Amino acid sequence: MPYTARPAAAIHPTTSTLIYNSPHGFLLSPLFSNAHPRPFPAPPLLSPPDHISSSPTGEWVIAYHPHPQHGGTLAIYPQSILSPNAARSSVTPLATFQLSSKPLAISHLYPPRTHLSRARSLPLGPSPPAGHDTSRGPTFTILTAFQVLLVHPQAIPHPGSLDVSSSWVMSCIQTSIWTMGFSQDGITGPQESEKRIERGWMSLVAGSRGVWIGYEAEGKVGVVRADVNVNENGSYHLQTTRLASLPFVDRPPFEGAETKRRDVEQGVETGDVRMEDDESSVSTERAGVVLVYRDTVLDDIDSLSRTRLVTMAFDRRLLQLAPGFSEMSDASTEVGDLWDWFTAPHPSRSVCSPACTTILFLHPLSSLPPYTIALAIISTPNGLSRVHLDLGSTQWNLLSEYRLGDLQSDNLILLPSQGVERGHLGLCAVVGRERLQLGAVRTLNDQTMIGDHKPGSMSREESQAVSAATSIILAERQGSDWSDVIRALTAIVDLSSQNSFVNDLLWRIYMLSGEESAIDQMDILGRVQVALFSVFRDSRLALSADILRLHVASELLDQCATFEEDGKITFDLDSIWPLISVLDWCLFLISSSMRQSLIFRASSSNHPTVSQNLINHPHTSIFILFHPTLRSLVIRILSQLHQFCLFLATLGRPILQPEAGGTGAGRRRDPMATIVAREMAGDLATKWGVDLEGWGQALEKIGELDELSSVQTSLTSLSVTPIQEHLPAFLEALYDSSLLFTSAAAVNSRDAPMAFDALEWTLLPPDRGTGEEHKGPGRADQPLE
Question: Basic and acidic residues composition bias: which ranges (predicted)?
Answer without folding.
Answer: 769-778
